[in-house]
Amino acid sequence: MYNSKTILARNIEQLRSLKKLTKEELSLILGFKNSYISKLEKGRINITIEKLDKIAQFFEIKTYELLK
C-alpha cells in the first residue's frame, strides 16, 4: 500500500527524470538544500505546503497532482 510520502517521492522522481535533471540541479533551481530532493524522493522527510506548491509550479502542474 502506498502512503502520501511514497506517492510524492515517485512523482517527483518521474517528473525530474522527464526534464532530465539531476537531484542537485532541481535543488538548485528550486532553492532547496542540496540533499532535500534526495530525501524527498526516498520518502524520508515531510514537506511543507509552500515547498509542495513551489515544486508543482516548476513542473507546471496542480499541487494535488503530486499526490495522486
Radius of gyration (Å) = 11 Å
Biggest sheet record: none
Q: What's the mean pLDDT score?
A: 95
Secondary-structure-derived class: mainly alpha
Report the β-strand fraction as a percent range: under 5%
List the quaternary state of the chains. Answer: single chain
Low-confidence stretches: none
Distance between the termini: 13 Å
Number of helices: 4
Report on this model:
The protein is mostly helical and 68 residues long. The protein has 4 helices and no strands. 12% of the residues are buried.
Write a concise keyword list for the protein shown above.
68 residues, mainly alpha, 4 helices
What is the topological layout?
Blueprint: H1 4-18, H2 23-30, H3 36-41, H4 49-58
In short:
The protein is an all-alpha fold. It has four helices and no strands. The longest helix is centred in the first third of the chain and has 15 residues, at 4-18.
